[in-house]
Structures are given as structure tokens and as C-alpha cells.
Write a structure and sequence with these properties.
The chain is an alpha/beta fold. The chain has 12 helices and 12 strands. It folds into 2 domains: 156 residues, Glycogen Phosphorylase B (Rossmann fold, 3-Layer(aba) Sandwich), CATH 3.40.50.2000; 181 residues, Rossmann fold (3-Layer(aba) Sandwich), CATH 3.40.50.2000. The longest helix has 17 residues.
Length: 358
């Protein structure tokens, strides 16, 4: 089979919302180069939101990991798993791409009746042992100077797809989502630009200094609509940031805990700027292609995972130990120093230029 004969491609990218979004440009490149190609995608339940129903994806196979974990070891889990495998095999895919390159994705490959099982060199946990078509990537898996989107595009390029255009495609929101966000944002001043602050992420040492956030809010007070987003668990962080600022209750809108991820994407579509650390929020804002995105980096590598393009800006500190890519800071003194080195004035200057604020 030549690459020109490719009719059906299966993508394995199971988990992590940001990484799933980072794989979408590869699906776009394949679909653009081979318009008749049918794309399937295997994803876990927690990361399916932007895959299931996506116009690029003809068939989505969801592994209900949350339900399986709740059950613990059971024969029902095995039955469910094999039923999903049967559904995949019934589609007769020509190619499967293990873009996750971990044992949990690679361990599906022996069950799949697919001739070409493709992965890149450098996969973790011996995942390459399960593929039969392994090729040399241009950069290492964890190269901090090579973006993961471009690495994923190498899968598409290997199939013969044109990869010059980097494009995200998300499904259009349901009318219920549009109406809910319209209602939530109805209190905003339509004469002002809207700045969304998404300050939380899962790693403590990816957070920007709370004091720096507070100083930025002081600058924005009265100049722009200020909207906070996040989960219920992020409320204490947001409350601390606000309490350290000069904001009063009427100066901001806190949507933390009020939106799911699909609704969050719609909030970003209505905004002018989204400010976030290296997080799923930053990647969703990038993918919707509406707001300017400012990403604040600390422990992780901006050249590997930051949003990029004309509407994307990155603020990252100079420090000899970064990017460490570690959840826990290894410094013996000045722990999480990288979270404080980007000064609020640097962010304020960007906001002035982007929004023409004085």
C-alpha cells in the first residue's frame, strides 16, 4: 500500500486535554491532503470533549477509564474493552498512529487488526515494541526547543500529507452552550475589551505569583472587563488573588465552577485576551483562534508547548534550571523562583500594546 492509497487512519491519543488539542493539526493535515480519508480517534472519557463530534473525526472511540477505575478489576471491564476493540476492527483501518507513545496507548496495538502500526523513535515505556513501522523523528520526544505540535505533524508528513499549515478545528458549540454563555456574560460592559484570567493549573510550580496577578488586576481595574475562569477547586486561588488587589465585587466576573470545558471555549470566543499559565485553558484559547493568548511560563518549556502565532505571546523567565519539566521544584533555596521572575509590568506592557490601553 502506498501513502496515496490511505483511506482510513486511526489516531491513538488517549488523555491529557492539552496534548489532545496539540494532535488536532495532524488530523487536519491528513484530512486536507486526503479529503476522502476517514479518521478514527481513540480517546479516554476525560479528554473526549473536543474529539467526539469534531468535524475532522469520522469515528470516535471512547475508553471509559473513569467508570473502569470505579469498578476496579472486573470481567465487565474486560468485556467493555473487547467490545471497543471489536468496534475499531470492524472499521478496517489502513493505518494506526500511536501519537501518545506510552505503554497505555501502545498496549492497544496487539489487539488491532491494522496492517501499519506507526510510531516515532523515542517513545517511552518501551511503547515502540508494539509498532511495526518505526521511523526517526527530527527531534527527541522531550526536546524543549521543538514544539509538540510540530512533532505530531511528523506523523501526518510520514503519510505524505502537507504539513505547512497549522490549524485547529473544533466542533461548533451547541445552541444551549451559546445561550448559557450569553447569559453569564450579559453583565459585562460592551464598550470595554474583555480580559479572561485563568490563573490555575495542576502543577503548583506552573502558577504565576499571586502578588503579580493582583498587581496586574490593579492596572486593569476600570479599563477592561475582567473575567476569571477555572474549576470549583480554583476558587480559593482566585479569591486570594482578588483579595490582594484593589478590585471590588463589581470590578470582575468570576465564572470558576460555572462552566464545563466546552462552555469555557465559548467564553474564550467572546474574549479579547486570555491570560493563563501553561495549562489546558491556554491551549483551548489558542485552538478557538479568537482571542489574543498570553501564556506565563515557569517550570515547563515554552518552545515545546506554548501557543504560537501572530496572536500568541509568551512570557518566560531566564533561569539556569529551567525548563526543568518537573512537578516539584528541586532548588535547595528560593523554591519555585521561576514563578516570580516574570514581573507584572511585562504583562501590563503587553496588555497596553494589545488592547491599546493607557
Amino acid at each position: 500500500m502506498t501513502n496515496g492509497d490511505i483511506k482510513k487512519v486511526l489516531i491513538l491519543r488517549l488523555s491529557a486535554l492539552g496534548d489532545t488539542i496539540h494532535t488536532l493539526p495532524a488530523a487536519y493535515a491528513i484530512k486536507k491532503s486526503f479529503p476522502d480519508c476517514k479518521i478514527g480517534w481513540v480517546v479516554e472519557d476525560k479528554a473526549q470533549l473536543f474529539i467526539n463530534g469534531n468535524p475532522l473525526v469520522d469515528k470516535c472511540f471512547v475508553l471509559p477509564k473513569k467508570e473502569w477505575k470505579k469498578r476496579g478489576f472486573s470481567f465487565q471491564n474486560i468485556i467493555d474493552f473487547m467490545n471497543i476493540i471489536d468496534e475499531i476492527n470492524e472499521q478496517h483501518y489502513d493505518v494506526v498512529l500511536d501519537t501518545q507513545q506510552l505503554f497505555k496507548s501502545a498496549s492497544l496495538l496487539p489487539f488491532l487488526n491494522i496492517k501499519r502500526k506507526i510510531t516515532l523513535m523515542g517513545g517511552r515505556e518501551f511503547s515502540f515494541l508494539f509498532s511495526n513501522e518505526i521511523y526517526q523523528a527530527s527531534h527527541g520526544l522531550f526536546d524543549p526547543n521543538y514544539h509538540v505540535v510540530k512533532r505530531n505533524l511528523e506523523f501526518a508528513k510520514h503519510l505524505g500529507a502537507e504539513t505547512d499549515e497549522i490549524k485547529f478545528v473544533l466542533k461548533q458549540p451547541d445552541i444551549d452552550v451559546v445561550n448559557k454563555i450569553t447569559d453569564l456574560l450579559s453583565v459585562l460592559d460592551t464598550n470595554k475589551k474583555t480580559v479572561v484570567c485563568s490563573p490555575a493549573t495542576t502543577w503548583e510550580n506552573k502558577h504565576w505569583s499571586e502578588l503579580h496577578w493582583s498587581k496586574t488586576l490593579n492596572f486593569l481595574k476600570g479599563k477592561a472587563n475582567i473575567v476569571f475562569t477555572g474549576t470549583d477547586a480554583d476558587k480559593p486561588l482566585i479569591e486570594r488573588i482578588v483579595s490582594g488587589s484593589q478590585l471590588s465585587a463589581e470590578d470582575y466576573l468570576n465564572l470558576a465552577g460555572l462552566t464545563n470545558l466546552e462552555e469555557l471555549a465559548e467564553v474564550f470566543r467572546r474574549s479579547d485576551v486570555v491570560i493563563s499559565p501553561d495549562s489546558g485553558s491556554a491551549h483551548i484559547a489558542w485552538a478557538v483562534d479568537k482571542p489574543f493568548v498570553i501564556t506565563l511560563f515557569s517550570a515547563t518549556a515554552e518552545k515545546r508547548s506554548a501557543p504560537f502565532g501572530e496572536k500568541c505571546f509568551v512570557l518566560a523567565p531566564e533561569l539556569d534550571c529551567r525548563p526543568c519539566l518537573k512537578k516539584n521544584c528541586k532548588r535547595k533555596s528560593e523554591k519555585n523562583l521561576c514563578c516570580t521572575l516574570v514581573e507584572p509590568q511585562a504583562l501590563i506592557n503587553l496588555l497596553i500594546n494589545i488592547l491599546q490601553l493607557g
